[in-house]
Amino acid sequence: MFDSVIPAIKDSETEMIALRHHLHMNPELSLEEFKTADLVASLLETWGYNVTREIGKTGVVGSLKKGNSVKSIGLRADMDALPIHETNSFPWSSTVPGKMHACGHDGHTTILLAAAKYIASPDCLFDGHVHVIFQPAEEAYGGADLMVKEGLFERFPCDCIFALHNMPGIPAGKFGFYSGNFMASADTVKITINGYGGHGAYPNRTVDPVVTGAAVVMALQSIVSRNVPPGETAVVSVGTFHSGIASNVIPDHASLELTVRAMKQEIRDLLISRIKELADFTARSYGASCVVEVYDSYPVLINTDEYTRFAQELAIKTFGADAVIDEIHPVNGSEDFAFMLQKRPGSYFLLGNGDKEAKGGCMVHNPGYDFNDEIISVGASFFARLVESHCR
Ligand SMILES: [Zn+2]
Ligand SMILES: [Zn+2]
């Protein structure tokens, strides 16, 4: 992979690593990416892009046209950091206590900037429109959805869109592609059970939300085992169950929070409707009532066959067959690029961050994680090749 990097991108490597370190030292949480967005926008302006700021609050789009073709392509990176306190002691470690780029979005932003710089140079030959999309709030609030709702693809039409995520555990610079339903939908469901509190010694004069809640938790276990067809992927996990403050007091309320994951929209719909039914009927059978709220939803991420094949073949052509690993499986994690893929065809793929614990192998969202700078030029070269291959 590394010897097939575009020479002009290799020449910018030192500058881009310094940029990545700057972003890593100055992490900003979801929808607070003000300085990051400003830096991205001003660099794009310097390189000659038409820049639109503040789409999806802190999102930035850079647009560039060469030639007369109507072909168009969108490349997307995410910019936000996480509320995690970094435990690394690199010279470029986070300078903000309690915030760090623990998912490598500093690296994704840098990869797309490195590609954007080359794409704007006379060395890059393409014919059409390129839109580089820097989105906020991937980790929370669904920044991709915010941009889509503000007319991203009406304002910046794209034939196809691409994005990548670094992946610890995959050798540095190797690509992973998957056609079809690749990442799970994620819904958070909150169930509030309303009972009638009283003295623990007189339970007959109460409606106990703790017992009701326990019955709801057990009832929910039957959804995946009894309602979902065997072979389909589905998860219903109760992550929190809060109620009561004293051993001799039966409380009024209990609250549960669930994460719900599925690989198909119809399974997602089934899970949500069964959760509502089971919570409601179970609560009523105990004389209680309940309120079920569904929020923070990310849809299933679906890669289109056409553009996944296009990207995979291009990766093999550019970097060799060895550069693409075949054992990629769908994952139960979620990703808000799914909102963009609901609107435009395209592909979301993985780029290995390294498989050695000392370099790139530490999993994302861990306080000891770091993005591997060696893969910046590989990712940037591939983004540039996607542009040159599609827009011609
Ligand atoms: Zn993340
Ligand atoms: Zn991420």
From TrEMBL:
Pfam family for this entry, one: Peptidase_M20
CDD domains per record: M20_Acy1-like
Signal peptide bounds: none
Sample GO molecular function, one term: metal ion binding
Cofactors demanded by this protein: Mn(2+)
Comment on bound cofactor: The Mn(2+) ion enhances activity.
Residues annotated as binding Mn(2+): 103, 105, 139, 165, 365
Organism: [Enterobacter] lignolyticus
One Gene Ontology biological process: diaminopimelate biosynthetic process
NCBIfam families named among the record's database cross-references: amidohydrolases (TIGR01891)
Keywords: Hydrolase, Manganese, Metal-binding
Keyword Manganese: yes
InterPro entries: Amidohydrolase, Bact_exopeptidase_dim_dom, Peptidase_M20, Peptidase_M20_dimer
Name by which UniProt lists this protein: Amidohydrolase
SUPFAM superfamilies: Bacterial exopeptidase dimerisation domain, Zn-dependent exopeptidases
Domain Peptidase M20 dimerisation: 188-284
